Amino acid sequence: MSDVFWSAPQSRAAWETLPQPVLEAAGRCDAERLEVERARVAPHLRERITTPVYSVADRFASWERLVRRMEAGRPGSDDYYPISAYGNDLDSRDSLDEVMDALPAAAREGALGKLLAELDARFDAASVPDPEGSLRPWVRPTKDHARLPDRWSRKPLRTPWDD
Questions:
Q1: Closest among 103, 85, 110, 96 to 28, alpha carbons compared
Q2: pLDDT at 124 (0 to 100)
Q3: Three-class SS of 77-88
Q4: Phi-psi region of 73 (alpha: psi -120 to 50; beta: other; left: phi over 0)
Q5: Whole-model pTM?
Q6: Which of the residues 12, 113, 115, 161 could staple to 83 if both were Cys, CB 3.0 to 4.6 A apart?
Q7: Is 38 exposed, middle or buried (0-12, 13-18, 19+ CB in 10 A)?
Q8: Do the beta carbons of residue 107 and residue 100 sit within 8 Å?
Q9: Could you tell me the end-to-end alpha-carbon distance of the chain, in angstroms, rounded to an integer?
Q10: Least trusted range by pLDDT, from 20-24, 84-88, 126-130
Q11: Element (H, E) at 114
Q12: CA triplet 32, 88, 154: central angle to 5 degrees?
C-alpha cells in the first residue's frame, strides 16, 4: 500500500492527532467516495477497488503537496508535475469544503480546520491574482465558472510544472 502522505508532513502530523469521531466521519466520507469511484468502472473491476483514490487524507495531502511545490517553484526532473495536475489539485481542494461540512465540528475547529486554513494562506502567499485568466487554456475547472472560489483566479508566483 502506498503512503498517502508522501511529501505531506503536516497532513501526516494532523492525521496522527485526529480523535476517533473525526476519523470515523472521514471514514464515512471515504466510503461514499469509494462508491462514486467504483460506479465509474466496469462491473468486473468494481470489486477490485477497495479504497478511494480521492480519500479525505489524500485530498489534504494533495493540497499540501501543491502548496509546497508552489513555494519551491519548478521542481527538478525527478518530481514531474504537469500543468493539468494543477487544475486537478484545485478541484480536489474545492471538494475539501464539502468534506469539511460533512465532518463534525471537532474537525472543522481542530487539527484539520487549522491545517486547511494554514495551507490556504500559504497558497495565497505563493500565488498572485490572475484577472486575465492566463492559465485558463490549460487549467479548466469542472464546476460552474461563476461560482468558483478565488483560488481559481490566481496563478503561482513560481510555476510548479515543467514548461
A1: 103
A2: 98
A3: CCCCCCHHHHHH
A4: left
A5: 0.91
A6: 161
A7: middle
A8: yes
A9: 32
A10: 84-88
A11: helix 111-125
A12: 125
Domain boundaries in the chain?
9-156
- In degrees to the nearest 10, what's the CA dihedral of 24, 14, 101, 103? 20
Output the nine-digit C-alpha cell for 73. Answer: 517553484
How far CA 34 is from CA of 8, 13, 50, 52, 130, in Å, comes to 22, 24, 7, 5, 35
Given a cut of 70, is residue 77 above it in pLDDT?
A: no
Closest CA to 111 of 65, 52, 53, 56: 56
| Nearest to 96, CA basis, from 124, 58, 142, 126 | 58
Mean pLDDT of 112-119: 97
More confident residue, 162 or 160: 160
